[in-house]
Amino acid sequence: MKLLLIGDSDSQILACEALCRFGDNRILDITINAVPREGTPPIILQRAAALGRLWQFNLAQIYTHPELSTFDAVGVYLTGSKIAEMKSALELILDPQNRPLLFCGFNGVVLEKFIEGVTWRLGYDVVCLSGPRDLEALRRITAKTPFEKQNVALVGLQRNNLDANTPYCDRRKCLVFSEQVVMPRKETDRARMLKILADLARRSPDWQILVKPRIAPDERTFHNFSYHIQDTFYGSIGRIPDNMLLDYRPLQDLLRQARMMGTVSSTAFFDALDFGCRPIVMADFGINPKNGSHVFAGSGVWLQLDKMESLDQLEAERWEPDPNWLNWMGYEKTYQPDNLITALERAKDNRVNHTVMGAEVPAGYLTNSGLSFMQLRLNAENAIAAGKLNDAASFLKIACQMRPTHRNVARRLAAVSCRNRILRNVLLIVSRRRIR
Questions:
Q1: What's the whole-model pTM score?
Q2: pLDDT tens digits, one per residue of 104-135
Q3: Residues 184, 187, 193, 196: what is their CA dihedral angle, to the nearest 10 degrees?
Q4: Which domains does the chain possess?
Q5: How far apart are CA 351 and CA 378, in angstroms?
Q6: Is 276 left (phi over 0), alpha (psi -120 to 50) or beta?
Q7: Which of 7, 332, 335, 390 is the most buried (most CB within 10 A)?
Q8: How far is CA 130 from CA 121, 149, 265, in A?
Q9: Is residue 321 over pLDDT 70?
């Protein structure tokens, strides 16, 4: 099976990477397209390239790529409404009888806006979910709607393939705290979070607490933030304990060595389990959906660190994640990426009788937004202004398919497709219209 996975941010590319843990018995040809975007760390691209072939095309270039129709399935890991727009665009561009199957999913644990996220994804051939928690929510949302039989695959929350882990007793007495850029959101809460960790470090002199920032101070990602954790670290604690440090090494390297890992609500909780590191969740901010902590409240390791006597006490009490909660979330061997391949094979066999993709949905039912004709025109004009005529042609071709009788779009397409530079410039001037 030939797969194309498309991601447009560092976190979405990591979701594609996590999905590529297919069994050795699968014969797969994998291409990952990392949509060019400022702030994507080079290490993310290197890891993606190690999984197969790496593309770095924007969406307009993908729409017109000659290999697009040769893939058996296309995985769409984009942000927001782009997920629905990609589906609508590919349905217009490709032969409906022979087009690749389309699938999509979520990046790690869905902490908030699950309903909104589902609306963008309904109608795909397969929607990947982590486990029973998300499946139950999806079925409740789509009950008695045209999407109640939406095809899904439970791909789980295990994201790392490992041969063996260092035994717990051979690990350093170290707790790694995995920072999240936007949780908690308030700067005062983030300062309080570090103060709690600093006090715990003072009460645990035999331990080391490493705070792992998500990114370095000079890096930028999809998430915007006002204060880097480094600034908060040095500006809010006062005298920093000798056994508390910032550590910018890759999180995987730290989890391989440490005994414990702490977080507010990061999906790194499950990475810690993968690497044999005992995870705990900081409950000091209460059950707050804005921090994502409501999801972890039943984990069995949801603890108030400011009330903990020391890390020695925590280690002696041997807190372990609740197995039922782990299964409910999707951290269980039966939930794995191979389930996606099985679901795609089933969807391919049933394509003739497929009733979800492209179905007419009566007014009033929950559905996702379609492709915006106006947005296509705006994208084309932006591409023309930037001198990217091939990209502009891609957007205008789709717009022409949506509205074949729209004369100005046809004229703009003819203009950008003209090979004579002087004539092309004249045509672009006379065909220019204000888009409202």
A1: 0.81
A2: 999 888 887 788 888 888 889 999 999 999 99
A3: -160
A4: 2-157+332-353 (3.40.50.2000), 168-329 (3.40.50), 373-430 (no CATH)
A5: 34
A6: left
A7: 7
A8: 15, 18, 16
A9: yes
